[in-house]
Each structure stands twice: as C-alpha cells, then as structure tokens.
C-alpha cells in the first residue's frame, strides 16, 4: 500500500494511493480516517492525485542518516569504510516534499545530490533486537541527502553541510508493501536533467537495514514518522540552479525536485 500525505483546499490529510504506475495521471487518493501509524479506515472519499499537492509523507522528529554505507561511494570521496554505522542527524526543518523547490544555499559553491532509500519508522521503539527490526518499520520512501560538499570538507562536523533548509527531500509516498528482505535489494538511481548520475542497488549496503535499526535504537528512542537514511551509492555530483534532480527506487516511485537560485 502506498500512503501519501497531501494538501487540498488548505486541508492536510493522508490517503492511500490507488492505481497503477507512478505518474500522477490516473492515480487517485482514497482519504483515510486516522493516521497511518495506527489502524485506520479508508473513507471512500477519493481525489485525483494531480489535483492535490503532495507533501513530505511524514514529518519526522528526527532524521538519522548513515554515511559511507556503500563502499564505492566512500572510495569516490577518499573515505575509509567504517567498521560500524556512521550516523549523523538532519533536522526536521531540512525535510521537504516531492516537487518542492530547493533554494541553492548561499554558503556553498558545491551542492551535491545523494540518492537514498529511507526507512520510515511506524511505532515508538528502543533497543530493537535484530530479529524484530521488521516490526518497527512502517515502510520505505525515496530520499535525497543533499550535501554542501565544500562545507562538509571544511568543517569537522556536518550540521551545516547536511542540515540546511531543504537538505532532505523525501517522498513521494511511503510504500508499506515492501518487506525487509525485498528492501535489501532494490535498484536505486539518480538523474539530473534526465542524465543518469547514480545507479546502484540497496544490496550494496555495508550495513543492512536491520543492523542500522539495531545500532540506532541502542542509543535513542525512535518515534512514529522518524526516518533513517541508509546511505548512497557511488556517483554523487554537483547540482546547479535550474537543475531538476530525480531519485527513483524500484517498487517505490520517483522523488523529483528542482534547484533554484536563492532570493
């Protein structure tokens, strides 16, 4: 099931996406009663997807991102592969949705795209055993871990380089029908203006999804709607104002955003 969050006529709601494919034409939203983190019912009230504005599918209290989780990506930036997951945070204010414009940050001259599989947490959890990791996952969505690469190199911590407003596009919806095993081997790509930049599979991850959940929840409580970014395959590269960047993940969909000149 694909669950989207959207606005229409000034109202915000969740809905189940119905129809085949990922193009808005022909897809409809069946508005749900309740929220996707608990039992809910479909209302039967349906609206065409192309008549609404899709929002970030969740509003996380925190985004826990994993760096250097693909060996070829670590190598292309001259980094060592970590023995344990290398985590950092992106603030909730960095999160934007599909179709949102990304103002090019004023403090960088080297904005990079990073296509990632995002794990959406479905219930409050802490110290999750590996064999129960699947129980805390609501589903999966696409993400773009936008990075001010020159700032990342210059500063010892990554708060500004990866935490600026708009640095975490996610969407277009949460796919709940993919199980943990399937999520561990999905094709993931990034295109800029129709040119293929990144192409990999989630099976290339050094630390798998269950291991990431174990590692993160050893240290902190995750809340419904929190997001874990699982790392990016090789091929990251620069974006310029006017560029359209599209992250696609097999079985989920495509997240598209346009970079614009700030101000």
UniProtKB/TrEMBL annotation:
Taxonomic placement: Bacteria, Bacillati, Actinomycetota, Actinomycetes, Kitasatosporales
UniProt-listed Pfam families: FAA_hydrolase, Rv2993c-like_N
GO molecular function: hydrolase activity
Keyword entries, A-Z: Hydrolase, Metal-binding
Protein name: Fumarylacetoacetate hydrolase family protein
Domain Fumarylacetoacetase-like C-terminal: 62-259
Keyword presence, Hydrolase: yes
Family matches, as SUPFAM superfamilies: FAH
